[in-house]
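so the lab meeting is tmrw and i was supposed to have these ready like two days ago... anyway. pasting both below. for each one the top line is the aa sequence and the line under it is the structure tokens. i havent really looked at them closely yet so no promises
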Amino acid sequence: MSECPFENILKGSLSALYYGDKNFLDTIDKMDFTNVRLEFMSELFSIMSPEEFYNVNDLLHSEQYLLYAEAVSHAIMAVSKKLADIAVFAQANADGVSKH
């Protein structure tokens, strides 16, 4: 079971909201998230067991998952033109315009 940086998860969520605000990001890096981390863990583990969480967390940080994510991204890019054509067709039909 690997160690999961719960505090980094919490700080990361705030950083995503305030991306680009260096003063804010520097401030939260210096803050103590102990109480929030403990409540977060309590909520998280009320839905799934710690073992389930760590198993998924380990998978998401594995080389196997990186390969999976790369393969899915590559495959989506390979069919992006066809997906765009489907989106155009669906939008045309949604607008009441039949396009063949």
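ok protien two:
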Amino acid sequence: MIERIAASTRDIGHFFLSFRRQAIWSVFVMNFVSSISVAMPQYGSLWMAKSGIDVQTISYFSLVSAVGWFAVLYSIALDTLKLPILHGRLGQRRSWALVSSLISLAGVVLISQSDPKESVLALFWATILATLGGRMLFFAMRGYVIEMLRGDDIGPGNTFYALAFWVSRIVVSTVVLLSVDQVGFSNAILLGAGMIAAGACVILFLPKPPHQKARKALAADEAANDPAEDGRGRRTWSYLAAAARRVINQNLLPPLMALLRRKGIWLFIIFFTVEGLSDAILSNILTPFYVSKLHFSVREIYIGDLTGYAAIIAGTFLGAYAFQRFSLYGALMLISILVGITNINFIILNELGHNLAYYLWTVAAERATLGMNVVVFAIYYTRVIDKEFAATQIALLLIPTSLIAVLIGPVSGAIVSRFDYDTLFLISMVFIIPAIVSLMAVRAKAPEIFGVNDDANTPDKVDVANSVATVRV
């Protein structure tokens, strides 16, 4: 027993010492910077709830998720388009990460100047810009991570990658929420914008990833016959059509077809989408539920945030254990069941009213389940994503979830306005049933997706630390 404890202690020590390696601390810093941009747009909803904006109006902010519909387009740019000047100095991933940070910074600054009492529409458009920048930075960062981590760096690198996400959330929550009472929402959000600006500066000094496999250049004869000009040096519509076909044939179809050739991918996309319905139903409703319905203060929301982030970190390790103990299929089934069970807490909290202790328990249970979810889905992502098409393929996999989030948000607000919160919580629990059924169908129709009869990719042989990554934005 003593020898096993000593061995475990040595392994943990070696794991944390791996942070000294360039690839690993670079991944940690890049995701820390990215996660700040991803987190900031959410404070617009809290500002609206505190300003007395009705839940139906707040629910329409789920339309911001429509930015995800265009993820394939800007992810193609992130994978292939070389930015003038910046590409030569920073490389493909860092140059786009810098530009994305600046877009996010502009959006967050506009959010800080858009008081919802004066114009909800201005806040809406500012949130779209900030969300676009955050999502672009997420895909640029994810591609950077996939290119940076090689060999022995993959396991600890992905673990520090996930921890960077939640550590950054704790920092942002602390800076913004604790300053609201002193300086107001506008100035508190500006502080978050300052952190994004600092992160953009940090990106300039991160190392370049290993050389990415170059795409084939256009042949000389194709360039000669390219209908780029009409004989007088002017661009023509035929040129634009040819350029569009080139983008589709070279930049969209290769990653799409490579993804669709994965065994069982369609069934797994169905499960992933249905399983995400529960989150989509509640995503834009919980803030007004806590603030407007139960009247929790900003400071109490902050305490809940800290509790939730700690629970997520604990959930990542619980998810890793579940994966190791039950395999990929067993871990996914367990998580699906837990999502339904933890949603019962919202109904109980609604009956109790303003009860801080049960609020913290509700947040902790829901967030721990999310942490487990992140880990197990990251395992699958790591196995099916091609390094060359990383940003584009992740965007393709997330399109159904983005579509659902946009469509279901306003419906959630209408259900609360027409009935009550309990009805919405019950509906979110019901969606877990088709998720479990679809997961069983995946197991029956495509066992290869879980590594069954595939020794080279059997999940039980994968380093557990490699599973820890963030796949939901």
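from a quick look at the 2nd one: The two ends are 42 Å apart (CA to CA). Confidence is low (pLDDT under 50) at residues 5-15, 212-236, 452-473. will dig more after coffe
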